[in-house]
User: What shape does this take?
Amino acid sequence: MVIINNYIEFEAWLGKEIGTTGWHTITQQQINQFAEATIDHQWIHTDPERAKTESPFKATIAHGYLTVSLLPYFWHQIADVQNLKMEINYSIENIRFAQAVIVDSNVRLKATLAAIVNLRGITKATIAVVMEIEGEKKPAYTGEVVFLYHFKD
Assistant: This one.
Protein backbone atom coordinates (compact mmCIF):
# COMPACT_ATOMS: atom_id res chain seq x y z
CA MET A 1 0.00 0.00 0.00
CA VAL A 2 1.18 3.48 -0.89
CA ILE A 3 1.02 6.17 1.81
CA ILE A 4 0.41 9.72 0.57
CA ASN A 5 0.65 12.67 2.98
CA ASN A 6 0.37 15.71 0.68
CA TYR A 7 0.04 17.04 -2.84
CA ILE A 8 3.75 16.73 -3.67
CA GLU A 9 3.86 13.05 -2.65
CA PHE A 10 0.71 12.41 -4.69
CA GLU A 11 2.04 14.26 -7.73
CA ALA A 12 5.13 12.00 -7.78
CA TRP A 13 2.81 9.18 -8.96
CA LEU A 14 1.62 11.07 -12.05
CA GLY A 15 1.54 8.67 -15.01
CA LYS A 16 2.57 5.73 -12.84
CA GLU A 17 0.71 2.68 -11.64
CA ILE A 18 0.00 3.23 -7.96
CA GLY A 19 -0.92 -0.36 -7.28
CA THR A 20 -3.13 -3.41 -7.69
CA THR A 21 -5.40 -4.92 -5.05
CA GLY A 22 -5.77 -8.50 -3.99
CA TRP A 23 -8.58 -10.60 -5.42
CA HIS A 24 -12.18 -10.29 -4.21
CA THR A 25 -14.81 -12.96 -4.97
CA ILE A 26 -18.20 -11.72 -6.17
CA THR A 27 -20.70 -14.07 -4.48
CA GLN A 28 -24.38 -14.62 -5.13
CA GLN A 29 -25.07 -13.28 -1.64
CA GLN A 30 -23.29 -10.00 -2.50
CA ILE A 31 -25.21 -9.77 -5.79
CA ASN A 32 -28.53 -10.38 -4.01
CA GLN A 33 -27.75 -7.79 -1.33
CA PHE A 34 -26.91 -5.25 -4.03
CA ALA A 35 -30.17 -6.09 -5.81
CA GLU A 36 -32.06 -5.43 -2.57
CA ALA A 37 -30.26 -2.15 -1.92
CA THR A 38 -30.80 -0.84 -5.45
CA ILE A 39 -34.19 -2.42 -6.16
CA ASP A 40 -32.71 -4.05 -9.28
CA HIS A 41 -33.91 -7.67 -9.23
CA GLN A 42 -33.35 -8.47 -12.90
CA TRP A 43 -33.27 -12.27 -13.22
CA ILE A 44 -29.86 -12.32 -14.90
CA HIS A 45 -28.46 -11.21 -11.54
CA THR A 46 -30.73 -12.89 -8.99
CA ASP A 47 -32.14 -16.14 -10.44
CA PRO A 48 -29.39 -18.78 -10.68
CA GLU A 49 -31.73 -21.51 -12.00
CA ARG A 50 -33.11 -19.37 -14.80
CA ALA A 51 -29.64 -18.05 -15.62
CA LYS A 52 -28.35 -21.62 -16.08
CA THR A 53 -30.78 -22.20 -18.94
CA GLU A 54 -31.57 -18.76 -20.40
CA SER A 55 -28.45 -16.65 -19.89
CA PRO A 56 -25.63 -16.69 -22.45
CA PHE A 57 -23.30 -16.80 -19.42
CA LYS A 58 -25.00 -19.95 -17.99
CA ALA A 59 -24.82 -18.34 -14.54
CA THR A 60 -25.83 -15.12 -12.84
CA ILE A 61 -23.71 -12.04 -13.33
CA ALA A 62 -22.89 -9.12 -11.05
CA HIS A 63 -24.61 -5.81 -11.67
CA GLY A 64 -22.21 -3.49 -13.48
CA TYR A 65 -22.86 -0.86 -10.83
CA LEU A 66 -22.03 -3.38 -8.10
CA THR A 67 -18.54 -3.69 -9.55
CA VAL A 68 -18.26 0.11 -9.79
CA SER A 69 -19.44 0.49 -6.18
CA LEU A 70 -16.37 -1.47 -5.10
CA LEU A 71 -14.08 1.38 -6.25
CA PRO A 72 -13.67 3.04 -2.80
CA TYR A 73 -13.12 -0.36 -1.13
CA PHE A 74 -10.39 -1.25 -3.61
CA TRP A 75 -8.85 2.25 -3.74
CA HIS A 76 -8.30 2.19 0.02
CA GLN A 77 -6.36 -1.06 -0.39
CA ILE A 78 -4.03 0.64 -2.87
CA ALA A 79 -3.48 4.06 -1.29
CA ASP A 80 -3.68 5.40 2.23
CA VAL A 81 -4.08 9.14 1.76
CA GLN A 82 -3.31 10.67 5.15
CA ASN A 83 -3.14 14.13 6.71
CA LEU A 84 -6.63 14.98 5.47
CA LYS A 85 -9.34 17.35 6.59
CA MET A 86 -11.72 15.74 4.12
CA GLU A 87 -11.94 13.40 1.10
CA ILE A 88 -14.75 13.74 -1.44
CA ASN A 89 -15.83 11.32 -4.17
CA TYR A 90 -16.05 13.84 -7.01
CA SER A 91 -16.86 11.87 -10.14
CA ILE A 92 -16.67 8.64 -12.06
CA GLU A 93 -15.86 9.18 -15.71
CA ASN A 94 -15.67 7.19 -18.93
CA ILE A 95 -16.58 3.84 -17.40
CA ARG A 96 -16.73 1.23 -20.13
CA PHE A 97 -18.03 -2.22 -19.25
CA ALA A 98 -16.02 -4.68 -21.34
CA GLN A 99 -17.05 -8.02 -19.86
CA ALA A 100 -19.65 -9.40 -17.48
CA VAL A 101 -18.52 -10.59 -14.06
CA ILE A 102 -19.96 -14.08 -13.58
CA VAL A 103 -20.94 -15.10 -10.03
CA ASP A 104 -18.03 -16.48 -7.98
CA SER A 105 -15.47 -14.71 -10.20
CA ASN A 106 -12.48 -13.04 -8.59
CA VAL A 107 -11.93 -9.39 -9.42
CA ARG A 108 -9.25 -6.86 -8.53
CA LEU A 109 -8.48 -3.24 -9.30
CA LYS A 110 -5.42 -1.68 -10.91
CA ALA A 111 -4.96 2.08 -10.40
CA THR A 112 -2.77 4.67 -12.14
CA LEU A 113 -2.61 8.39 -11.39
CA ALA A 114 -3.83 9.89 -14.69
CA ALA A 115 -3.98 13.56 -13.64
CA ILE A 116 -3.55 15.75 -10.59
CA VAL A 117 -4.38 19.41 -10.13
CA ASN A 118 -4.02 21.82 -7.21
CA LEU A 119 -7.26 23.80 -7.07
CA ARG A 120 -6.46 26.60 -4.60
CA GLY A 121 -5.28 24.12 -1.98
CA ILE A 122 -7.64 21.26 -2.88
CA THR A 123 -6.06 18.29 -4.64
CA LYS A 124 -8.10 16.92 -7.54
CA ALA A 125 -6.76 13.46 -8.35
CA THR A 126 -7.93 11.51 -11.39
CA ILE A 127 -7.25 7.81 -11.03
CA ALA A 128 -7.39 5.58 -14.12
CA VAL A 129 -8.86 2.24 -13.05
CA VAL A 130 -9.08 -1.21 -14.57
CA MET A 131 -11.14 -3.93 -12.90
CA GLU A 132 -9.59 -7.23 -13.88
CA ILE A 133 -11.34 -10.60 -13.80
CA GLU A 134 -9.11 -13.52 -12.84
CA GLY A 135 -8.46 -15.78 -15.83
CA GLU A 136 -9.97 -13.37 -18.37
CA LYS A 137 -8.19 -11.28 -20.99
CA LYS A 138 -10.81 -8.52 -21.05
CA PRO A 139 -11.42 -6.43 -17.93
CA ALA A 140 -14.81 -5.99 -16.30
CA TYR A 141 -14.41 -2.26 -16.95
CA THR A 142 -12.01 0.62 -17.44
CA GLY A 143 -12.51 4.25 -16.52
CA GLU A 144 -11.51 7.05 -14.20
CA VAL A 145 -12.49 7.98 -10.69
CA VAL A 146 -11.89 11.51 -9.40
CA PHE A 147 -11.33 12.37 -5.74
CA LEU A 148 -10.95 15.76 -4.06
CA TYR A 149 -8.52 15.78 -1.14
CA HIS A 150 -8.36 18.60 1.40
CA PHE A 151 -4.95 18.16 3.03
CA LYS A 152 -4.38 19.69 6.48
CA ASP A 153 -1.23 21.46 5.31
Observations:
- The longest helix spans residues 28-38.
- The helical segments are 7-11, 28-38, 43-46, 48-54, 64-69, 71-78.
- DSSP finds six helices and eight strands in the chain.
